[in-house]
Specification:
heterodimer; A: alpha+beta; 5 helices; 13 strands; B: 273 residues; alpha+beta; five-stranded antiparallel β-sheet; proteasome (chain A); Proteasome_suB-type (chain A); Proteasome_bsu_CS (chain A)
Chain lengths: 260, 273
């Protein structure tokens, strides 16, 4: 009697090939990917009359700056902007889902439109469900708009389904470089009431400059989106970093003792 | 025999395979910065020392003196920073006595980098070395593997990105001493608030040309503990005393009967007979 399951009722090895024992150690089916084409930080800050976001126009292929015209801030519905960082193909899939969401919501023609909190709720469910299937959409997303009570709305959701809301948020490298700067003007909930549109814009421009200095996968061309509490959405494109400081490096020679 | 000695490599691998891996050293988790200004250089650091997720020391000193006018801020493994710095301090002083000249920052830099490279990064010292010497004000950074960088403004440690964001925003070519001091303090504060590995206070050292270096211990203290709401002392009598016995151990002598002995020049200890 043969006790080895590997030898029961098997097709002949000389006809079908030798049995692959790796099947015993296969483990669970996994889909976790590596992102391929990626976008870097998205940064955002609430101000007294709404929310402002910025994201550069770079889609990187690893260390290659592959596409320099990638728009990563999307208008969704009438009064919401969604900013994506991470895998670009997953971003495009989510854009498709959001488009369908808006279209299907329109069927009702009941005078109601989906706003930021609803789009956010939908997106965070999608993200968390995908992570629970160990098949994530490899993104970190910012959703900005206004709440039903008219106050500014800004929240974050990512590939793990982590959700978070604050007056200032940034994804990727922005979390380390931009958030400390943004928190200087808005550190607690409610601080946004004291910030004007010009201040918010100046802060974002400064942050995008610092990110271009210190994030090795960034670009100096970016878009700025403004969503006001009146429901107006403007996306300014092709903004460039201005007044950058590179000249001082002329005087630096070598890495220690070199003089010439 | 010249060259590196890799005998221990085999032994360490064997030990690791038997379940005794190299112990993970504790690090400081830090924000340190350095900044040049007109006529000098200033360095600053936070004061939190961490052992994993625990704050081991709320007010440790990360600014080390290498020579009276050359100071060093250290991030990475705390012990490595302290000892490598002290080693350099001694070596530099002997070297300065030998050359008959004031010690130079580039000398310290070269000694440090050659030492750290020899240990292939295992001496976990990440340092910002700054000072003034006969060639002027200097600012450098060194990584544990032995690479060095030059700059007008630098930051290192887990809070380096928060600090660098502030430095990149506010640094300009011509800074006065006070501007540089407040810039560095602000940069450290960005690390204190936004980085979990950094916290508590700001220490600073200003090295100005032709002036003695000034150490500002706790230049800023934005995290002082608030006054406790009440005194938690137990009143006397809370614990009942059942028995009391006193053992006289010393004979207490009143203050004013002490004898004074004055050592004159001639009474000093004989060193060379």
């Amino acid at each position: 009697m043969d006790h080895m399951p590997e030898n029961w009722g098997r097709p002949r090895s000389d006809v079908y090939g030798v049995y692959n024992p790796a099947i015993h150690n296969a483990g669970p089916t996994t889909h976790t990917q590596q992102p391929s084409i990626t976008g870097t930080s998205v940064i955002a800050i609430k101000y007294n009359k709404g929310v402002m976001l910025a994201a550069d126009n770079l889609a990187s292929y690893g260390s290659l700056a592959r596409f320099t015209d990638q728009e990563r801030l999307i208008k969704v519905g009438k009064e919401t902007v969604v900013g994506f960082s991470g895998d670009v193909s997953d971003m495009q899939y989510l854009e498709l889902l959001l488009e369908r969401l808006i279209i299907e919501d329109n069927y009702d023609q009941d005078g109601h439109n989906l706003r930021a909190p609803h789009i956010y709720e939908y997106l965070s469910r999608v993200m968390y469900n995908r992570r629970s299937k160990i098949d994530p959409l490899w993104n970190a997303i910012l959703v900005a708009g206004k709440k039903d009570d008219g106050s500014p709305f800004l929240a974050y959701v990512d590939l793990l389904g982590v959700t978070y809301s604050a007056p200032t948020i940034a994804t990727g490298f922005g979390a380390y470089l931009a958030v400390p700067l943004l928190r200087k003007i808005a550190s607690d909930d409610g601080d946004e009431k004291m910030i004007t549109e010009q201040q918010a814009r100046a802060a974002l421009d400064e942050c995008m400059k610092v990110l271009f200095y210190r994030d090795a996968r960034s670009l100096d061309k970016y878009s700025v989106a403004t969503v006001t509490t009146d429901g107006e959405v403007t996306i300014e494109q092709n903004v460039r970093c201005k007044d950058m400081s590179w000249r001082f490096a002329d005087h630096i020679r070598g890495y220690g003792t070199q003089t010439m | 025999m010249p060259g590196f000695n890799f005998d221990n490599y085999q032994r360490n691998n064997f030990l690791a395979s038997k379940g005794y891996p190299i112990p993970k050293a504790t690090s400081t988790g830090t924000t340190i910065v350095g900044c040049r200004f007109d006529g000098g250089v200033v360095i600053a650091a936070d004061t939190r020392a961490t052992e994993g997720d625990i704050v081991a020391d709320k007010n440790c000193e990360k600014l080390h003196r290498i020579s009276p006018t050359i100071w060093c801020a250290g991030a990475g493994t705390a012990a490595d920073c302290e000892f490598v710095t002290q080693l350099m301090s001694s070596t530099l002083e002997l070297h300065a006595l030998s050359t008959g000249r004031k010690p130079r920052v580039v000398t310290c830099l070269t000694l440090l980098k050659q030492h750290l490279f020899k240990y292939q990064g295992h001496v976990g010292a990440y340092l910002i070395v700054a000072g003034v010497d006969p060639t002027g004000p200097r600012l450098f950074s060194i990584h544990a593997h032995g690479s060095t960088d030059v700059g007008y403004y630098l930051s290192l440690g887990s809070g380096s990105m928060a600090a660098m964001a502030v430095l990149e925003t506010k640094w300009k070519q011509s800074l006065t001493k006070d501007e540089a001091m407040s810039l560095c303090a602000e940069a450290i504060e960005a690390g204190i608030w936004n980085d979990l590995g950094s916290g508590s206070n700001v220490d600073m050292c200003v090295m100005e040309v032709d002036k003695p270096a000034v150490l500002y211990r706790n230049y800023r203290t934005p995290n002082e503990r608030s006054i406790k709401e009440k005194s938690y002392k137990f009143p006397r009598g809370t614990t009942a005393i059942l028995k009391e016995k006193v053992w006289p151990v010393v004979d207490a002598v009143p203050f004013d009967i002490f004898e004074e002995t004055i050592i004159r020049e001639g009474d000093k200890m004989e060193i060379d007979s």
